[in-house]
Amino acid sequence: MSLIIREEINDDISQIYDLIAAAFGRASEAELMDLLRAADALILSHIALLDSEIVGQAAYSLVTVTEADAIHHCPALGPIAVAPSYQRTGIGSMLVRAGLKALTEAHYPLLFLVGHVSYYPRFGFQPALPLGFTSDYVQPDGPHEHFMVATLDAQLSRNIRGHVRFHPAFDAV
Q1: Distance, CA of 127 to CA of 77 (rounded, Å)
Q2: Which one, 45, 90, 104, 140, has least CB within 10 Å?
Q3: Residue 12 burial (CB count, 10 A)
């Protein structure tokens, strides 16, 4: 498979919308991408191209991590999507790895996500709650394993803990 991963450009936007809607079987996540883009909240948006067809995408926006008076900004992955006919071919994994590399090189300390507990640990993600992070996506005494974090820089992330708030666009969809 000759796959190219690159950052999105304006000409990709309508294809990305269609891809995300098809991958999720609904438009909510595609609308989330549009809201993040309109708010200039995307810090990175990768697409996967196969023979000039967009077959995958992964988006990153900033979350705030707040503990007392300390506020930190870290990236979050989502949405990420692969065209239904290309799912389970490794494209999602390639997108995640490309994002991890780019965000590590950009000197971010941590990467958060809300996702499948059986998929993301292979990339270094682990449940965030036991590590001292809370989120509106985790209810007291409820399941929490889907709220995860990966350490990108152990030195930079050493003193970061607290409540993680995703961009308000996540609440709008």
Answers
A1: 15
A2: 140
A3: 17
Q: What are phi and psi of 116, to 5 degrees?
A: -70, 125
Mean pLDDT value of segment 71-82: 97
Which residues sit opposite 49 in a β-bridge? 4, 54
Q: Is 20 helix (H, G, I), strand (E, B) or coil?
A: helix
Q: What is the rounded CA–CA span in Å between residue 41 and residue 75? A: 10
Cis peptide leading into 79, omega within 30 of 0?
Answer: yes
| Cα 164 from chain centre | 14
| 173 pLDDT higher than 90 | no
The stretch 137-148 carries a mean pLDDT of 86
Q: List b or e across 74-88, with b for residues whose CB sees 16 or more CB atoms inside 10 angstroms.
A: bbbbbbbbbbeebee
CA nearest neighbour of 77 among 57, 94, 61: 61
Going from the N-terminus, what domains does the chain have, and what CATH number goes with each?
A: 3-172 (3.40.630.30)
